[in-house]
Design a protein that fits this description.
Elements (H helix, E strand, L loop, with lengths): L1 H7 L4 H24 L16 E12 L2 E12 L4 E4 H6 L7 H13 L3 H12 L5 H20 L12 E12 L19 E12 L16 E5 L3 H14 L7 E6 L3 H10 L4 E4 L1 H16 L4 H14 L4 H10 L6 H16 L5 H7 L6 H15 L8 H16 L2 H10 L6 E2 L1
Helix pairs in contact: 4-5, 4-6, 4-15, 5-6, 6-15, 7-8, 9-10, 9-12, 11-12, 14-15
């Protein structure tokens, strides 16, 4: 290539870049292949363990960040356990036929791209790695459970720079599912069936008390997410466990934010009994709109006037006065009365969580926008693409990897694999 450039001149710089990069990677792969196949290369996992018999070397093609190479690895077999292993595979941290670096990139691309096929194209474009989308999917299926187990095994971490206020948020969003995953489930379809299953999403973060007349701001890189297709009971336990790992035990104040869903507040009472409960202010305003429309007529001047007055009442801890006035203005009969009573019941049920003036003065968040955004960024951007239908298992595996990436512990997991011996046995 260099001689051609000197002869013809540099006519295509992009092709020159690609050609040089391909040549360097090819040479690097050959050097790495020679190094790993050197019988004198020190490797703690290479000697056979007690009871194992050496059955000689066998070849394996492995895709690395430099390209494909062929390894010759010793195979050991234990007759007593009826199992064998390739020692070098474990020492190198190979995942099937992929190096740990390639496996890491496959998981990252497969969870962030809009589809597995898009992830395949991304790897080809950015890293010149030709990997089929199905292989990327299988990689996530294999690694996601390991990531989940690793995260659950982590001890609590206390960040000395974190703010004094620890906030926990929860919400839910639907994910489109395959028909067999929806058998017997009721939904919002015209025929009463469901086409989605609820993904429960949690967001946890810390922040400091703001100065007077300032809004609270989350600590930098302090937000972690969890997302599960699980019952509220199981999800609550997972949310509490993640909070413990995040250091909630040393928080001076714990705040729990959510909308009016019954399962959210039941979860909060069971798992965060000492938290300050705050109903999302913007959900409260939505119900306030429904209430004023029912009482005074949708779009009427009086409905708009009352909404403005009652919105200010909410910000002044006057929810009880608001409820009293709404009751006094109830229609005597008809559907408007029924609709208004439903909204009044919502306000009464949540009035203890609607002291927004008190919360703002204390420096707390009064909106659950963090977890609502997480429903879109964690779930929606990957699971709700056009035409997608998921299995429970497949959706959960992608969510696990996305949460690892967005929460900042994805790289920590892969670093841990460098120090933990990877043992893998094969039955005879």
């Amino acid at each position: 290539m260099l001689s051609q450039i000197w002869t013809e001149g540099l006519t295509d710089f992009a092709a020159c870049e690609q050609g040089l990069l391909a040549a360097l990677k090819h040479d690097g792969a050959r050097w790495l292949e020679q190094l790993l196949n050197d019988p004198d290369l020190p490797c703690k996992a290479n000697p056979p363990l007690p009871g194992e018999q050496d059955y000689g070397c066998r070849s394996k093609s492995v895709l690395t960040l430099l390209g494909w190479l062929t390894l010759w690895r010793p195979y050991y077999y234990n007759p007593g356990l009826a199992a064998g292993r390739f020692a070098l595979d474990g020492a190198l941290g190979l995942v099937d036929s992929y190096s740990p670096g390639v496996a890491r990139w496959m998981c990252r691309a497969g969870s962030l791209a809009g589809s597995y096929q898009a992830a395949s194209l991304d790897l080809l474009t950015y890293a010149q790695l030709e990997i089929d989308g199905r292989q990327i999917q299988r990689m996530i299926e294999q690694m996601a459970p390991q990531m989940a187990d690793w995260r659950e095994a982590q001890a609590a971490v206390f960040n000395p720079l974190a703010g004094q206020i620890f906030s926990v948020c929860a919400d839910g969003t639907g994910a489109p599912m395959r028909r067999q995953e929806l058998t017997g489930r009721k939904g919002k379809q015209p025929d009463g069936t469901a086409r989605t299953r609820e993904v429960k999403v949690g967001a946890l973060f810390t922040h400091r008390r703001p100065n007077p007349n300032e809004k609270p701001v989350r600590d930098y890189n302090a937000t972690s997410y969890i997302a599960h297709l699980a019952s509220a009971q199981d999800f609550g336990a997972k949310l509490r466990a993640e909070a413990i790992r995040r250091g909630i035990a040393k928080a001076k104040v714990v705040v729990f934010l959510g909308d009016g869903a019954v399962w959210i507040w039941k979860l909060a009472r069971v798992n965060f009994p000492n938290a300050i409960y705050i109903l999302d202010y913007y959900h409260a305003l939505e119900h306030l709109t429904l209430l004023t429309n029912a009482l005074y007529g949708e779009g009427s001047a009086l409905a708009k006037k009352r909404f403005r007055q009652w919105r200010q009442a909410l910000l002044k801890d006057k929810v009880q006065q608001l409820i009293a006035q709404a009751k006094a203005d109830l229609p005597t009969r008809g559907q408007p009365r029924t609709l208004a009573k439903k909204q009044i019941a919502y306000l009464e049920r949540n009035r203890a969580k609607m002291l927004y003036q008190t919360y703002r003065q204390a420096g707390y968040f009064i909106g659950s926008g963090v977890v609502e955004a997480a429903c879109k960024s964690v779930v929606g951007q990957r699971l709700k693409q056009s035409g997608m239908l998921w299995s429970l298992k497949g959706a959960q595996q992608v969510l696990t990897v996305r949460c690892a990436l967005l929460s900042g512990w994805f790289d920590d997991f892969w670093k841990s694999r460098r120090t933990i011996p990877q043992t893998r046995s094969f039955a005879a």
